[in-house]
Automatic annotation (TrEMBL):
It catalyses: a ribonucleoside 5'-triphosphate + H2O = a ribonucleoside 5'-phosphate + diphosphate + H(+); a 2'-deoxyribonucleoside 5'-triphosphate + H2O = a 2'-deoxyribonucleoside 5'-phosphate + diphosphate + H(+). Keywords: Cytoplasm, Hydrolase, Nucleotide metabolism. Belongs to the Maf family. It comes from Propionibacterium ruminifibrarum. The lineage of its organism: Bacteria, Bacillati, Actinomycetota, Actinomycetes, Propionibacteriales. The keyword Hydrolase applies. Pfam families: Maf (PF02545). This is Nucleoside triphosphate pyrophosphatase. Its cofactor is a divalent metal cation.
């Protein structure tokens, strides 16, 4: 089966590749504006679903659904102080956010949309993974230096765990992959529920020795 990742995220792509998969990545085109009174769970799951539907339309337009396909889309948000946060967008926002987050906890919510296309039929599911994080008590200089890298501006919540932001996460409760924006255990379970085994997506048969 072919695996299509509806995302431009290098971190999500790297996570899937590290797990032995070889997805085709296609950038979705959607409006990510939150709706009034929409919870963080509702927002993350809705955006994940819309990303998937956007790329599904692209696949149809390009006539790329002539083989069995799994389509995966995700959207990640940070819940902190009862509010929902996406990408900071500016250095000033990064600094302001980290000044509040340092030494405290936040919750990462990632909506996962999975669609299985085979035999002309589509089965789909949208679910959420949740991970609780504890942030280090950064100094003002550390916050300024981290903001200066430019990394946190463009990532959900304003931090990473697999790059420059790794030293600033002191504790994780839940799936660590979810902090990167894609929960491998949840994706595996969704696939099983939709009748697809994880190894059906592998480019090599199960049991084949893979050398790094």
């Amino acid at each position: 089966m072919q695996l299509v990742l509806a995302s431009s995220s290098r971190a999500r792509l790297a996570t899937l590749r590290a797990a032995g998969l070889q997805p085709v990545a296609i950038r979705p085109e959607i409006d990510e504006t939150a709706r009034i009174d929409e919870s963080v769970t509702e927002l993350a799951c809705r955006l994940a679903r819309q990303k998937g539907e956007s790329v599904l339309r692209i696949l149809r337009e390009r006539d790329l659904l002539d083989r069995e396909t799994v389509l995966l889309a995700c959207d990640t948000m940070l819940e902190f102080e009862g509010r929902t946060y996406g990408k900071p967008g500016t250095k000033a926002s990064v600094i302001s956010r980290w000044m509040r987050m340092r030494g405290r906890q936040g919750v990462v919510h990632t909506g996962h949309y999975v669609a299985v296309i085979r035999g002309g039929r589509i089965t789909e599911s949208t679910r959420e993974a949740v991970t609780v994080l504890s942030f280090a008590d950064l100094t003002e200089q550390e916050i300024a230096d981290y903001a200066a890298t430019g990394e946190p501006e463009a990532v959900a919540g304003g931090f990473t765990i697999d790059s420059f932001g790794g030293p600033f996460i002191t504790r994780i409760e839940g799936d660590p992959h979810n902090v990167v924006g894609l929960s491998l255990p949840l994706v595996r379970q969704i696939l099983l529920d939709l009748g697809v085994a994880w190894f059906d997506l592998w480019p090599v048969p199960p049991g084949t020795q893979v050398r790094g």
